[in-house]
User: Fold this.
Amino acid sequence: MSRTDSSFSAGLSHIFTRPTGIVGIGNTLRSDDAVGCYIADQLEACLADGTPHQVLNAEDVIENYVFRLAESPVEHILVVDAVQGSGQPAGSLVLGRLTELETGSGVFLGQSTHKLALSMASSILEQHGKQVYLLGIAAENIDFGMQMSPDIQDSAEMVIALLAGHAGRSH
Assistant:
């Protein structure tokens, strides 16, 4: 899915029709893998008070937050994570229901960099009536390092603006 694909924006619009939990996951010590955490931190700072949407930076331990998410009033969960093996250029975006993307029936053929924990969390959340989506950003480098690749940084800034626009801003 290209960065400017209109179906991407339409997909986000659909997700944000219901109260949504935006969950950034990643490892801040592994270069591009930090993108989900970065996006969550930036969004948390700009979402308006009183919005029905929530933001959580789960880092690389989404399993520690799964029951809190399951019991929360949000109906949709949007997981933001780096993805690998999609064959797409670095910074490319993928969006869809996690269960569809995992089974290969969607356009996404790569995997989240946190696949096992994410699959388990998704299963529990779905059992609690949540719809779980993945917004994946194709990673270039997940080696140890503290800086994201320029293409990943550019995509992160675009995703922040899109999510903030759909979820509502405080300023």
